[in-house]
Amino acid sequence: MNIAVIGSGYVGLVAGACFAEQGNDVVCVDNDARKIAMLEQGQIPIYEPGLEDLIERNAKLKRLSFTTELESAVQGAEIIFIAVGTPQDEDGSADLTHVLAVAKGIGKAMNGPKIVVDKSTVPVGTAQLVKRTIQAETSYAVDVVSNPEFLKEGTALDDFLRPDRVVVGVDSEHAEKVMTDLYEPFTRTGNPIIVMDVVSAEMTKYAANTMLAIRVSFMNEIALLCEKSGANINSVRNGIGSDARIGKSFLFPGIGYGGSCFPKDVQALVRTGKDHGVELLLAAAAEQVNARQKRVLLDKIVGHYGSKEAIRGKRFAMWGLAFKPRTDDVREAPALVIMQELVKLGASVQAYDPEANGTFRERFGEHPQITYGESNYDVLTGADALIVCTEWSEFRAPSFTRLKDQLKAPVIFDGRNIFGRKDMQTLGFTYYSIGRPSVTA
Ligand code: NAD
Question: Fewer CB in 10 Å around end: N or C, the chain?
């Protein structure tokens, strides 16, 4: 099939490369000329494991190309995916500016009947809006399909090529047939293509993300209670996760969820609730808990040194800036909140992330109290303590001798529970983690 994917970010690039990998002819479009120029030269503007190889192979085979020209891309395609960003608007709702600008552009470029697919996460009713926007510009028939994306940054290729399920919201038999044919190669393992009406598909994406966010916030809340009551969240997690009704995944406490999806999607759902006169109490609480959780490590740092004033002049090593491992995405990352507060209190920070030094620096801006290192050991020298914000695998088994040698004091604030408490005790560290009793050197 001839496919156009509009928006070449984390979702658009992965979708485009994976559709090409199955033999489709794909053109990825973006209005960011710098991004397209990079892609045309074989450079990948984001970090996603495996993506570079996949893009290179399919570009070489001429199944995958890149352009800023929406019109020609639309005219050459039977199926057009909209995968542009839907950031949070001031009132919490999803900002549909980019989606509707693309819809208008598609309408103007139409040269025959097409299927347009909302891949971006968009609130219920958006497919209708996209359809109306396109049809205001053309008399050719258009089917607008909702096909929400469930990939996770860091494992995006595997998620896309071998999805747990594909959700497709359609309102015509023709669109159903085209979409099920397109996704058939991805669901050979037996995982289902779930076909439903368009509005239910739109709702499914928000409901899934909000349920996951509630689960994370619930565990973070229980972790706080564990700390105060002397329980250990690891034991509690094992205890509850072994109940088949609960399951083991997504039960790890930390310093709050971030990224481009959970924070904005939960708030957008709350907003949709308000628009329909339904107050979504659980979803709203998940966000409140998350905002509190992003400050939990800061409270521990201030508690350790005795007061906020005592932070002035301290120097911290920070491991991890991305909102989670295996990505360079720092959108809504807890490290942003922690960094902001530390520099406000007069501390300096030596930060390192295997992939996100650049994106963090770009988002946070240059700051005289922040430096970035080339390795995790680089940033330890002369620091008063180590702060762990992201659980990259390479942080899990460091040389603790080097840590002790390089740090001014053997103090670790671990926001991701990557080290064992007993080991820390034996090695002589003062160690704070989440939902577990602290260890004093
Ligand atoms: P992104 O910001 O990485 O990419 C969006 C791209 O769209 C950018 O490259 C931007 O330049 C481009 N763009 C914006 N306006 C355009 C226009 N008018 N014409 C052409 N290109 C335009 O965003 P993303 O993370 O890929 O997310 C895209 C959508 O997918 C969002 O709705 C998001 O909620 C959803 N989603 C994201 C993830 C994820 O893990 N990132 C997962 C599932 C769903």
Answer: C
426 membership: H or E segment, kind and range: helix 421-427
Q: Would you report the helix, strand and coil content of the chain in percent, each value rounded to 5?
A: 45, 15, 40
Task: Look at the chain and report how many structural domains it folds into.
Answer: 3
Evaluate whether residue 439 is within a structural domain: no
Closest listed residue to residue 317, CA positions, set 436, 428, 414: 414
- Decide: 9 in ligand 1 pocket, CB within 6 A: yes
Of the candidates 165, 196, 227, which is a domain's last residue?
A: 196
- Take atom 1 of ligand 1 and give the residue whose Cα is closest: 9
3-class DSSP string for 336-378: HHHHHHHHHCCCEEEEECCCCHHHHHHHHCCCCCEEECCCCCH
Domain that residue 210 falls in: 205-292
84 lines ligand 1 (CB under 6 A): yes
Residue 441 forms part of a structural domain: no
Residue 108 lies in a domain: yes
237 shares its domain with 350: no
120: CA distance to ligand 1 center in Å?
7
How many CB atoms sit inside 10 A of residue 304's CB? Answer: 18
- For atom 4 of ligand 1, the residue with the nearest CA is 9
Q: Could you tell me if residue 57 is inside a domain?
A: yes
pLDDT for res 283: 98
Residue 27 β-bridge partners: 4, 65
What's the half-sphere exposure (Cβ side, CA atoms, 13 Å) at 50?
A: 13
Decide if pLDDT at 363 tops 90. Answer: yes
Beta strands at 411-414 and 114-118: parallel, antiparallel or unpaired: unpaired
Please check the confidence at residue 190 and state whether its pLDDT lies above 90: no
Do 286 and 331 fall into the same domain?
no
Mean pLDDT of 262-270: 96
On whether both 249 and 317 belong to a single domain, the answer is no
Mean pLDDT of 10-18: 98
Same domain, 279 and 305: no
Position 157 pLDDT exceeds 90: yes
Answer yes or no: do 79 and 210 share one domain.
no
CB of 324 sitting under 6 A from ligand 1 = no
Asked if the model's pLDDT at residue 366 lies above 90, the reply is yes
Per-residue buried b or exposed e for 139-149, using 16+ beta carbons within 10 Å of the residue's own CB: eeebbbbbbbb
Q: Give mean pLDDT, residues 217-224.
A: 98
353 and 274 inside one domain: no
Given ligand 1 and candidates 95, 147, 149, which is best to mutate, with the most ligand atoms within 8 Å of its CB?
Answer: 149
- The DSSP result for 124-139, as a single string, is TTHHHHHHHHHHTT-S
- Catalytic residues, which ones? 261
Query: Please, which pLDDT band fits residue 189 given cuts at 50, 70 and 90?
Result: confident
